[in-house]
Amino acid sequence: MTFSDIFKKTFLEGYSSADISIYTALAAMLVASCIGLYIFLVYRMLTRKTFYSKTFNISLAAITVITAAVIITIQSSIVVSLGMVGALSIVRFRTAVKDPMDLVFMFWAIVAGIICGVGLAEIAILMSLILTAGIVVLDKLPVAKAPMMLVVNASDVDAEKRIMDTVGKYAKYSTVKSRNMTGNTLDLIVELRTAAGSELLKDILKEEGITSASLLSHDGEVTF
Question: Which is nearest to 166 in space by CA: 212, 121, 199, 214?
């Protein structure tokens, strides 16, 4: 028997398995399930998307439990861990994450599962509570008010000056974002900030040649 054979045998015998009881694994999985459910509830309460994805939210809870199970399995045997790393390396995820906050919740679920898998449930719970408080506080911080979009349809192509004069009475900031003329009609989109939207629309509709006017707001990115 060569030295290489002795080294390999000693290495595998020393690290082939770890003393992880079924009760320890069950406790870690239960804690991971509770934290996954907590992440599910936090995501449901904090997200303000127009189209809420329930399947993505369920996947967050599932990822926490799955990650914990993977970590527990890796601890049980180095041979199994090497095989699992090789198997997971061929997996490719092509689902695009459209919202950065979705990425935060996804990493939260993965990290919580890892921490629970190594038996540090207290740290996972503490991290979840601190992270929740941080997200809530930062979400409540005031930011610049998002601009509104004024959409005006007119039957007079020369109505732009009158429209902008009226806008100037109610908004300190305004800029034309789109201007479309077809025959004798004018479609105008103006970005502005105002606290008197109703009065602005009433005055614009009083102008000659104006057929319709709409004021739209959004909760997207803010331009400073």
Answer: 199
Q: Looking at the chain, which residues constitute the CATH 3.30.70.1710 domain(s)?
A: 148-216
| 8 Å CB contact between 160 and 186 | yes
Cβ proximity of 179 and 188 under 8 Å: yes
Hey, what are 183's tokens?
A: 């025959």
User: Which fold, 148-216?
Assistant: Alpha-Beta Plaits (3.30.70)
Greatest Cα-to-Cα distance within the chain, rounded to the nearest angstrom:
101
Give me the tens of pLDDT residue by residue for the chain, a chain 224 residues long: 564 554 455 544 544 455 667 888 888 889 999 999 999 999 988 886 667 788 888 999 999 998 888 888 777 666 666 666 665 665 566 666 677 788 889 899 989 998 988 888 899 999 999 999 998 888 787 666 667 888 988 888 788 888 888 888 888 888 888 888 887 888 888 888 888 878 888 888 888 888 888 888 766 555 55
Task: Answer yes or no: are the C-beta atoms of 115 and 124 closer than 8 Å.
Answer: yes
CB 115, CB 121: distance < 8 Å: yes
The distance from CA 166 to its chain's CA centroid, rounded to whole angstroms, is 39
Q: What is the CA radius of gyration of the chain?
A: 29
Alpha-carbon gap, residue 159 to 152, rounded angstroms:
10
Give the separation between CA 63 and CA 70, rounded to whole angstroms.
10
